[in-house]
Amino acid sequence: MPICRNGNFKKKTMSNNVNIRNLKGERGAVTVGTGNSVVGNFAVLQIITDTTLSALGADNYSQQDGLLTSITLPAGTMLYGKFSSVSVDNGFVVCYKDV
User: Fold this and answer.
1) How far apart are CA 6 and CA 89, in angstroms?
2) pTM for this prediction
3) Rg (CA), the chain
4) d(Cα 54, Cα 43) in Å, to the nearest integer?
5) How does pLDDT run across 24-44, given as a tens digit for each residue?
6) Helices (H), ranges, 1-99
């Protein structure tokens, strides 16, 4: 979105870490439900129904923390990051593809 200062338009940019196309799902998505898992490069996980994950692989998440695999994530939750794998114990998740 352009910003106008004294008649000069400058393009407003975001951090290189965020790709707006990915957040809109333009790269596609994969769905995963109860008892299934998926491997790939994902930028966003959208929790469709109340979900419990059995495993989560991510650059910015340590599995030993167990935080996201020990609770039920409510429907409507969006997780942002660099995910490499998602395993669903119970529920339904849409995994939006990253670059």
Assistant:
1) 56
2) 0.72
3) 16
4) 19
5) 666 789 999 999 999 999 999
6) 20-23
